[in-house]
Amino acid sequence: MNKISRRAFVTSASAAGLVGVSGLALPYYSRANQRPAFTHGIQSGDVDATSGVVWTRTDRPSRVMFEVSSTENFANALRLAPLDTSPASDYTVKRLLTDLTSDQDIFYRMVAADLADINAVSEPIVGRFRTAPASKRDIRFAWSGDTAGQGWGIDDTGMKAYATIGKHTPDFFLHSGDTIYADGPMKDEVELPGGSKWKNKVLVDEKRKVAETLDEYRGQWKYNMMDKNVLGLNAICPTFYQWDDHEVVNNWSDSKNLSADDRYSEKNIHVLAARAARAFHEMTTIRYEPSEPGRVYRKIAYGPLLDVFFLDMRSYRGANGPGMQDTVTPQSRILGEQQMKWLKRELANSNATWKIIAADMPLGLVVWNDATNKVGAEAISNGDNGPAKGRELEIADLLRYVKNVGITNTVWLTADVHYTAAHYYNPDKAQFQDFNPFWEFVSGPLHAGTYGPSDFDMTFGPELKFIKAPTAEQGQNLPPSAGLQFFGLVDIDGATEQMTVRLMDRDDNELYKVTLDPVHSA
After folding, report:
1. Which stretch of DSSP H or E encloses residue 84?
2. Average per-residue pLDDT in the chain?
């Protein structure tokens, strides 16, 4: 049997055609008219050198059988104990694959049997990922954020940026948050300037209103996985997820007040956040942390050249407000005391050349809690351009710690603001200066309205090296069809250990490129 290359598999794989493309020998299947089906594809995530999480969803209570192999023909495949799906988790199932070989292509195959008729068996579904290396090799990954926002859903083209990312065959894709827009209802058609129309060719009832119930939050996720481009990338590339605000409701914190928002019958932000968090963990491949079920912040070790630190800048923050506190308190924090202790410890213990800090919000851009009146800090910066105050105090403490402990080669990746940019943080230009220079790269949206640009806050001395955002003539909330949809690509050279960052648009145009040399400690 002829093998196919990884690139050939990636290029030709699709949500509907994986089995036929890979040439897998199919076992006997029931000819029952009503066999179980996999409804929203397959996905993997949180992959390291020896493990990774896989996920799928069935259309009914089913027993899902798993096979894992290092070859696409599943010769000598390892069969794992089956897992059952049920209405309790909306028929989703995910598991951690362990004891994998490092730097190895891993094929995984699932088959579902109807629990009510165990002889009624589905067609198989197949996915693929590659484990992290144990030695130095080239690494490529992509990142972006902001999917299906501002009313822009699945049109005839679909979520094209996902397909473009797939063409680069990344080792993984880092989704920087706003993975869904639970607060962004969609219409069948949207009038565009010039008389044309945007048509949401695919639309479900859950997307016609804001999400309030658990099933409605689940429906937001299932909608995204109705897009062929999302399904295609999921099948061949692990996704590392984090979240931000739109997974719940815009700019949510303890101070969020929905009493005047007639779209919501459920006004309690804590109830909504709990339902949203459950759906987030059910519908993604994020790992389960027994010490804190539901935790989003974590580290993924991706070989000797790369550690990725995923922050949660939403769950532990104090209430949104002016952000002008003079001391670090629970109310002035954005990461929270426990997450900050974890981050410092893990950064100090990291032996990887590069430390990517995946943040769901940018450090030096002003994001207002009330954008209309430009009031309140929604992100870190408070907009006063002065010494560190409010949430800036926590970040200042972190940057000082990184400098004093001698932690090198930190790079921040983020999304959230719906345009792409490269920022260099220069202490010589900053109000708070006790830190070493570093880079922050911004990308997104993947498939949402394009906005920007945002104003800088000079507390940490950001310098603008590149930006691509709407012009004043173009206006705000541009649809995906305008072309201003962005993602980033990061390449780490296994020989030189250099990191090259490219900012890309959905048509695969390279907009900006910079190569960073690693600093090696004495």
Report:
1. strand 78-84
2. 94
Give CA–CA dist 72/371, Å, rounded. 51
Q: Is the backbone of residue 342 left (phi > 0), alpha (psi -120 to 50) or beta? A: alpha
Q: Bridge-partner residues for 358, per DSSP?
A: 310, 413
Q: Which of 88, 106, 87 has its CA nearest to residue 96? A: 106
Please answer whether residues 386 and 459 qualify as being in contact, where contact means their C-beta atoms are separated by less than 8 angstroms: yes
Cα-Cα end-to-end distance for the chain:
51
Predicted model pTM? 0.93
- The Cα-based distances of 479 to 22, 448, 451, 462 in angstroms read 36, 7, 10, 29
Phi, psi of 189 (to 5 degrees): -140, 150
The residue assigned the tokens 């397959």 is: 42
pLDDT tops 50 at residue 14? no
Question: Is the torsion defined by CA of 325, 329, 334, 335 positive or negative?
Answer: positive
Q: Please tell me the distance from the alpha carbon of residue 361 to that of residue 381, in angstroms, as a whole number.
A: 10
The continuous run of DSSP H or E covering 11 comes out as: helix 6-12
496/406 Cα distance (integer angstroms): 21
Position 238 pLDDT exceeds 60: yes
Residue 184 dihedral angles phi and psi, to the nearest 5°: -120, 80
CA 235 to chain centre: 16
Longest Cα–Cα distance of the chain, Å, equals 71
CA angle 34, 284, 112 (to 5 degrees): 25
3-state SS assignment for residue 289: coil
Strands 420-425, 197-199: pairing kind? unpaired
Phi first, then psi: give them for residue 499, nearest 5 degrees. Answer: -110, 125
CA distance 279 to 500: 35
Q: 316-325 pLDDT, tens per residue?
A: 999 999 999 9
**CA nearest neighbour of 46 among 82, 95, 81:** 95
